[in-house]
Amino acid sequence: MLYNNRRRRTEGEGFSLTELLIVLAIVGSMLALALPYFGTVIRRSRLDAAAREVDILMLSARSQAIKRGNQVGVVLSTNPSYSWKPAGYSAATPIYRTAAVFVDSNSNGAPDDGEAIIGSPYVLPEGGSVLNMSIDQRDKAVPGSTATTTSFVFTAFGNAITGSDTNGVFFFDAKGNVLQVSIPVVTNGKVAMTKRSGSSGGSYVQQPWTWF
Q1: What percent of the chain has pLDDT over 70?
Q2: Assigned fold of 16-205
């Protein structure tokens, strides 16, 4: 009986200060080791998410073109001064760092005043140390930062119009990771999301790819 009482008192005493400090030191060491990894995961996920959003918009435009029996495209711009007036809008709408799916009703391969937007424009992430965006020639080894506006337009048959295979939309970070969304072949209109195979140049490859 005396032994049981002593055991209960010992169990009720909890952890000592020394034990708590040891546990906190272990947890702190684990967090210090894990934080750089979590930062890398967050950086890569932001890059991947931004590229996939444009990939999805382009796939949606292709689907809408087939469904509507009319040319439908996606317009993207890195030019702060570019704007146009879609149907139902009272004034010209800035498209800077925005991607919009539009009905190319006059089949000229570009958005014009009075043409309709499908859904809501997607605001692309602002540039910074974590994530940047540019529009340049497809498969460019080192994408430039020149202010550019481009359109990727699909026909009612699901293929893309000539010129939609000229440019790519690039998302990149300071570590050398570059993701590209483009249409490699207009005849099939398939949208491809690829990654630069080297941190300082190289070709663009399909998944699985290597992160830097």
Answers
A1: 83
A2: minor pseudopilin epsh fold (3.55.40)
